[in-house]
Structure formats: structure tokens, C-alpha cells
Amino acid sequence: MENPITFHPRPRSSRKYGVSIKYFDEDLQAPSKRVDFQVTLGIEQYKNEERVWQLSIDRTELFINRHEPDLISEQLAALAMQALYPIKVDVNHRNQIFRGIANHGDILQRWASISEKIADKYAGDYSELFIRKMSDNISNASEIERALGFDMFWSVFFHPQYLNYDAELGQDIDFYFPILPYQKMRFQGRQILEAEYTEYGTCAVNFSAVQELPEEIKWTDRNARMRLDARFDLDGNGGLMKNAVVNWGIFKNGLGAGRSIQFSAYEINTTADQGAQQTLVSAEEPAASEKKGFWERILG
58 and 39 in contact (C-beta within 8 Å)? Predict the structure, then answer.
């Protein structure tokens, strides 16, 4: 059937999400690690390009285990985040990125300033290595885009949802979710669009997958399996994501066996400008090359 939902958000608007990622080890009720941050999404639309939007994604207020980053590696990563964000990308009516990163020049300028601050504040071989490798890899826009594929929020926000669902409003699809650092894990499952709007006026999309543990996950009991469940609430007027929850875990015989991850992103406020659309500058078109993710080489 024809796609029952499309991506057509209101231009000159913004949305803010509170994001929380909790990691649980075996037999622990409280998370062994927790990461929280905020994402601000800005939306513009090209005046002369039909069904093309530019999204500006910014990330702030990073907390690790409910504290500001305190380890040197965490502080360096937080500073690097300030250079990378905001990131601008162009998307179509299915929220698919094309033309790569649109503001690579801005990222390079921010990194030039922040790398000087790092050199002034931190001394030693580790910080020098960090600056050198970041400088090398951040110069490649395609490398940055590839590294973003290892980010949970990025994977969730750009997961395909605006599809041509079948008569039962379902479709078999892959969900790539990085449950391991710097690796996109493939989950083969079924995605279903609920037939009715929710009581909040949103479109609900649900995904579920159950499969064997891959070799990359080191787990003693190889008879255990893993399950991933995701729910998306999309704005009924424009299709933009309002909330998303993803739960991954290892289980056996229907019971939890240990390790799990809980991801959530909730809208915390929305603003919109009723004025005319704003024409955007042309996007840069970086070379389409792929290399090993720079975050792994730097912080791995």
C-alpha cells in the first residue's frame, strides 16, 4: 500500500529531546552506567527544492552517571562533541540523509578553536595523540558521517519508518543499533504501524526482533538469545519523532539472563515560527569514502 505516513515537518521550527541511555549488568537493578544529554533539532526547508529539509542537530548537557564528565578521556570526548555539534544534514520525505554533512567547514573552524583549548589545558602524550588523530579524522566529512552511525540517537532518529507498509501495516526490516561500542549491530525483525492514532495524537511504530547472540557478544551461555524492542511516537502532523524507546537484552527461556540496555528520547519542548520559509545555502558534497570509525581509534 502507499506510505501512510510521510516526513514533512514544519520549517523554521525546533524540537528538543532529553536522551537517556542506561546499561545494566547481570543481576543489577540499578544501571552500571548511565549517559544523559539533550538534543536540539532545528528544521529549515529549501525554497526551491521540493520535499527537502535541512536538519540541524545539536547536543548539549552531557552527564555520565549523573555527573559532568570527570575522567580526562570523558572530558576530551565532551570537548570534541562541542566541535562536532551542531551538525547539519539534508533529508528527503523519508528522513533519509543525502549530500552528506552540510556544515563541514563550520566543524573544522570549531575544532581549530577547541583543539587550542585542549592543548592549553591538558599536557601529556595522551592529549597530543587525541588532538592529532581528531585533526586527521575530523578533516574527512565522510568519516564523521560514518562515525555518527555508531551513535544511538543518530541510529534511532534516522531509522526507516516512512515506508510502504503491507496490507497489515507491517514490513520486515533491519534495525541497526550499536549495542557494542563502535559497532552497528543488525537486527532483522518486523515493524508495525498501529492503525489508529494514539490518545496523544501520534502515530505509533513498533519494531521487534529476536535472534541468536553473535560472536561479538562475549556471553558464556551460547543458548541464550537477544531481543530488541523499539517504539516510536511520530507527530501526527508532519511525522517528526516525538518520543522513542529502545530496549535490548539477553534472555533465556523467556526470562532475562543479564545484560541489557535501555534507550529513551523524549520531547521536552517544541517551538515554531509561523513566518515564511527561509532559503538555505547549498550543501557541501563531501567525497563518499568509508574508513574505520575515528572514535574507536581515538577513545577505543
Answer: yes
Of 163, 147, 216, nearest to 186 by C-alpha is: 216
Is the residue at 295 inside a domain?
A: no
What value, to the nearest 5°, has the Cα angle with vertex 78 and ends 75 and 83?
A: 130
Nearest to 241 by CA among 150, 151, 156: 156
pLDDT tens, position by position, 3-13: 568 898 988 88
167 found inside a domain: yes
Residue owning grid cell 529531546: 17
Cis peptide before 86 (omega within 30 of 0): yes
Question: How many domains does the chain contain in total?
Answer: 1
**Domain at 103, CATH number:** 2.30.230
Query: Which residues, in sequence order, are bridge partners of residue 41?
Result: 15, 57
Q: What is the pLDDT of residue 285?
A: 32
The amino acid at 88:
K
CA distances from 188 to 95, 208, 226 (A): 21, 8, 12
Residue 94, helix vs strand vs coil: coil
Q: Which three cell numbers stand for residue 119?
A: 592543548
Question: Residue 24's domain spans which residues?
Answer: 13-276
Cell of 15: 524540537
How many DSSP H helices and E strands does the chain contain? 6, 11
Q: Evaluate whether residue 287 is within a structural domain.
A: no
- Give pTM, 2 decimals: 0.85
